Every structure is written in C-alpha cells, then in structure tokens.
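Before we proceed, please read the two lines closing this message. Report back on whether the structure tokens fit the sequence:
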Amino acid sequence: MFLLSFDIEEFDMPFEYGKVISFEDQINISATGTSIILDLLKKHGFKATFFSTVIFAREVPEIIERIKNEDHELASHSYHHSQFKHEDLLESRKALENLSGMPVNGFRMPRMMPVSDEEIETAGYAYNTSINPTWLPGRYNNLHISRTVFKTGGVFQVPASVSPLMRIPLFWLSMRNFPAFYYRYLLKKTYKNDGYVNIYFHPWEFTDLSNPNYGLPGYVSRNSGDKMKKRMDSLIGWIKSNGYPDGTISELVEKY
C-alpha cells in the first residue's frame, strides 16, 4: 500500500529563518496548497491522510468538508503548529472530531518531534506517525528505532518510510531534491522490502518557496510551486500505473 499524507497547518516555517509572515498569509498559502492536493488526488482517484492542526481546520472548514466528502482520512497534527502542551493531544482530537464529524484515529507531532507514547495512548489514538527513523543533523537521530510498523502499549507506531539499507529518508525534501528516477527507485525498493510506503508532504510546498520574504534555503525551496504540482501529479500517476494500491494510514493499521 502506498500511503500519501499531508500535514495541513499554519505555514510558519519562515519563523525558523528569522522572517515574519502574517497569520492570514500562513492560512491562505496552506489552504491554496491543500486545494491543489485535493484536486490531484481526485484526478487520480487516490485516497490519502490529512494531518490537520485545529487552528488550520477552524479557519478553513470548507477544506475539512472536502476531505470528508472525498473519502480521505483526517488525523491530528496537534492544536497549534508552533507551540505544544500535553493537553493538546486530547483536545486536538476532540476538536477535530467535533469540527469534521469524522473519527480521528491518528496523530503526527509537528516537525516530527518526540512525543510521549503513554500520553498518545491516554488521548485515545490508535496510531502515532511522528517518527522519522533516520539520522539528519540537528533534526533526527533515530537509527535505533524500527523502520517499520511496531506497537508500543496500545498504540501502533507507523514510522515515515526510509530505504531498507542506508535509511535514506523518502519524505518531502527527498521527493523535491532527488532526480525522479532515483526517488522512484528507492520507493520501489522500499515497497518490495516492507510491503508499504509511508511518505508525507505539506501544502505550502505548492507555493513558490523561493520568495525572499520567506528566507528559506535552496534545498527547501527547490522544485516548489508549479514544479511541485507537476512532480506530485507525475508521482501519483506513476504509483497508479504500477498498480500499487493506495489507502489511508488507518487502513494500514487495521491490517495489523
């Protein structure tokens, strides 16, 4: 199963690089990108999982309604994107369920930061997908963690996919920075080895991130905007043409 997921959130990344962006722009940029994503998924008949912050969901109820009506999964990306307290785990799940009328089974911590397994379980989630089981300087040091689905207490852990041998991450930066043929080669190897692929992206990637007002480095802004739209369209088409099944993360977890 090929699992595509999207972290729909306030576009606050410029803050990490000392830039300022208004709350209105944060929401509008992500809302526009999410609409592009939903259009691409609809074009290809592809199901996905959307991890939303409560702040974003409240601002764009029409986006949440599309996710529901087009048979995608809604999961929690906490309450806010740039601040966190433990109470946000339960409060975000309840708020998203109330806003959408959908069950919220999964959680992903903003920026894939560590989160307590016990508190995830207490908050009522069936799965957590906040682990990138690789090593990236200054961000992740998770080479000791399983690459594939495992269970901690009553919660399934669904790490982001990395390649079998070198643990090359297959996330959003890889898709935009690797040549397409190499990225797809890694996807095929991982799918053959693991039986599924779990990769994630963001709606703001469909904006031209080379805007100097954002202050983002080249490896973040490369192949964004229209180029990202074309890459995602091509990637989903490639997945479908190879006959790989698509689905939500909840559907994968049900198999375990």
Q: What stands out?
A: The chain has a mean pLDDT of 97. The chain is about 40% helix and 15% strand.
